[in-house]
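[job 0417] fold request received: NAD-dependent epimerase/dehydratase
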Amino acid sequence: MKILITGGAGYIGSIMVPRLLDLGHEVTVLDTFASGTTELAAVCANERFTPVRGDARDHRILDELVPKADVIIPLAALVGAPLCKADPIAAKTTNQDAVIDAVKRTSKSQIVLFPVTNSGYGIGESGKFCTEETPLRPISLYGVTKVEAEKAVLDNGNGVTLRLATVFGMSPRMRLDLLVNDFTWRAVTDRAVVIFEGHFKRNYIHVRDVVKGFEHALENYDSMRGEAYNLGLSDANLSKIELCQRIQEQVPSFVYLEAPIGEDPDKRDYIVSNEKVESTGWRPEWPLDRGIAELLRGYRMIRNSRYSNV
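[job 0417] inference complete; emitting structure tokens
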């Protein structure tokens, strides 16, 4: 199939693009390539790969690229509450408006596969799983923009949305700010972390299982069409303290302390049911412990000390 991915050089895209090419698809990536790095360099040898430097908010580019695609995967986004808070205009125009504009340009014969954040659930009820029927109550601009974009995709009738748990794992376009990646990095480099509101829970998913989820949605589009699906590890609804305990099993010298005062600006606290997507036959391949081990191997190669003397 001919697949258009916006933001395809990012954390998820740099894993997704090679996989889709391996499956035989033609892949066009629309990205600003702002970081100037080479996350997709290896796939340039593939004649079915077409990179386009541009902005997903540019209507002229959308007019050219969207009609040519069988599948549109809008990954371009400002991801995370802090980044969206820092630039609210770019957050709304990229996370929400650009997706709506792309969807408006699709026909009913085209497929839209869209990643949402399950942070849209906000603060869940204690001991009660959030399902796809749970009311969405996003508490950050990031959550609000993604929820609004999801509504546009589902209302258009030709899409599937995947409500992603907190993603972790190594990627060519690495992110150290994601919770599992961050805590594991601190375990390796600082040997310690101070936790605010360590009882807050959330769900997790490996970046390669995210890509596998998109593959699954594409292969089962007819039966999954028009629906939202939580995508996460059913055995990884963990608090921050529980996450640190799992990391400590592989990094015994890691020390974690819960601060007696202070609060986390990210107030998300929920547990999530992934039963709906599992009922379609999807299963993850990357449990949390395997992902932590992968990160530990990866962090032997990474240095994040640009302004350090060491």
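[job 0417] notes: The first strand starts at residue 2 and ends at 6. The chain is about 35% helix and 20% strand.
[job 0417] exit 0
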